[in-house]
Write a structure and sequence with these properties.
The chain is an all-alpha fold and about 300 residues long. Helix 10 packs antiparallel against helix 11.
């Protein structure tokens, strides 16, 4: 007779369920640290306000220096005097007439210079023969200071409007030519090869691949060319001008009228700034397809 402690054959001794203790929860760094209060979003200043902060700050410093006597009136007129003189010259019609005369010269010179730069850059950029003939000559002429050509232009064209327009056109040609030429030659060779694989001919490659690739450089050159046009006009209108902003500056220099000189410089700056703003808007519209770096931060 089997004892009570002996297990019966074919049966297993009864098993009791073992109790498992759950593992202790692990604390992460976020659990050990106290919760931080949420920060309020920082106040974002519009970019237009930030862009205007620099000129407004300079104007405030200029005004304070003139008011306190740190900047004598014989050296530089105060902003109040400049504004008052602008009102007076606008009332007499001298300032609008000067701006119109200078704008006409700048526009004609820019159109001539831009047309020449476009023709030369396309010829040198698209054709090897054109590059061999044109690019070296343009590099040589660019080393010549175009302001130093004023006496030669006077000998060639006289003292009328022609030398002034020619100087503006020459100043516009170089930045436009080199930026357009560089943009054409920097076109991605892989895109050109891909265009050939899909059946684009030479005209199609130029229209759909090369010229769009050169457009960013052309717009940069356009910005430089417009600023150079006004710079060239400053020198051109010092030569026997009977109208224009440079004519007002020349007369003011003879009578030591610093308020008129500063006013003419401000007009040049504002006209250049308006042209630059127009090119920026044009760039945003024409280059909307192009993803580019727009800066970091707010």
């Amino acid at each position: 007779m089997p004892s009570p402690n002996t297990a019966v054959s074919g049966t297993s001794p009864p098993t009791h369920p073992t109790r498992t203790t759950p593992p202790a929860p692990t604390l992460t760094k976020s659990d050990r640290r106290p919760a931080r209060p949420r920060r309020r979003p920082a106040l974002r200043v519009p970019r237009s306000v930030r862009r205007a902060a620099g000129p407004v700050g300079l104007l405030a410093v200029w005004f304070l220096a003139s008011t306190t006597g740190v900047l004598p009136e014989s050296v530089l007129a105060s902003p109040v005097d400049v504004v008052q003189r602008a009102v007076d010259l606008t009332g007499t019609g001298e300032l609008p007439q000067a701006i119109a005369a200078s704008g006409r010269r700048a526009a004609i010179g820019f159109v001539i210079g831009a047309a020449a730069a476009l023709a030369l850059s396309l010829t040198a950029g698209l054709f090897r023969l054109g590059e061999d003939v044109i690019d070296a000559s343009m590099g040589m002429f660019r080393a010549i200071p175009w302001v130093g050509l004023i006496p030669l232009f006077i000998v060639w064209f006289g003292i009328d409007e022609t030398p002034k327009i020619a100087l503006v056109a020459l100043g516009v040609t170089y930045p436009l030519y080199f930026n357009i030429y560089g943009g054409i030659r920097s076109a991605d060779a892989r895109l050109i090869e891909a265009g050939r694989m899909v059946g684009l001919g030479r005209i199609g490659l130029i229209r759909y691949v090369i010229l769009p690739s050169a457009l960013p450089g052309a717009l940069v050159g356009l910005r430089y060319a417009l600023s150079t046009a006004w710079l060239a006009l400053v020198f051109a209108e010092q030569v026997n001008a009977d109208a224009g902003i440079g004519y007002l500056m020349s007369n003011a220099q003879q009578y030591f009228q610093t308020d008129v000189i500063v006013l003419c410089l401000v007009v040049y700056a504002v006209l250049g700034l308006l042209c630059d703003f127009a090119v920026r808007l044009l760039s945003r519209r024409l280059l909307s397809w192009r993803a580019s770096f727009d800066g970091e931060g707010a």
